[in-house]
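Pipeline run #58 for the internal structure catalog. This entry was flagged by the ingest filter as a single-chain record with no existing model, so it goes straight to prediction. Upstream metadata was stripped on purpose; only the residue string is passed forward. Reviewer on rotation: M.T. Logging verbosity set to normal.
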Amino acid sequence: MQPYFSLSKSPFYSFLFTIPLFILYELGVIAVSGNDAFVLRNGADVFMRQFLTLFGVLGVYGFSALFLLGFLATYFYHRHKWETVDFNSSYLIVMFLESIMWAVLLYFSLAQAMLTLMNPNGIMLTQQVVLAIGAGIYEEMLFRVLLIAGLASLFNLIFQWNKSVSQWAGMVLAAIVFSLFHFLGEFGDHFRFDLFFIRFIAGMILGTLYVFRGFGITAYAHSIYDLIVLTQITKNDF
């Protein structure tokens, strides 16, 4: 199973694995929001899109296009070196099953809190489902892929820490930012330390999962976790 564990966390498999999730989210946004496609988006998605406007990447779908370009660049890079990449489509199925396993473990770890990692307040169930799907892609891209890597590089540059120490320090700070992020904006929760701490723990769990299992599995685990919690909340409302 060693090739599976090493290949499934690679950028190639991660991007390939998350493309269906990405397409499902984008189609879901269009279906449930119509002309309000920019408004009804995951907060991390909106943040990254607004940040990219500073560099001239404009429009609602500018970031979507960059995501697809990143996927294509990754695909063609590895396609050029195809001899070193053993593509096995069955790995994608195993990755999905593994993502479900991690999502269930995350759910039971936070079961007493019954907490979604995105903010579903004041919106319809169908919109909550779409945002849960988007949370897996964009929050993991922002708070795990970009923030952990960026902070780790900064700590290494400033403090000359080794890669492992810098990465774990970056994970802790990224988990703090991840938790605080859920108290911002129109749909953000009112700050409570218990909510902050629970989301910090969730950020640490997801950060650890990202480090050891890669972006793709972490993204699906996050989305599936949110969907499990939404299902439980919906059942309790009836």
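catalog note: The mean pLDDT is 79.
catalog note: Helices lie at 2-7, 11-33, 43-53, 62-80, 89-109, 125-159, 163-181, 193-237.
status: ready for reviewer M.T.
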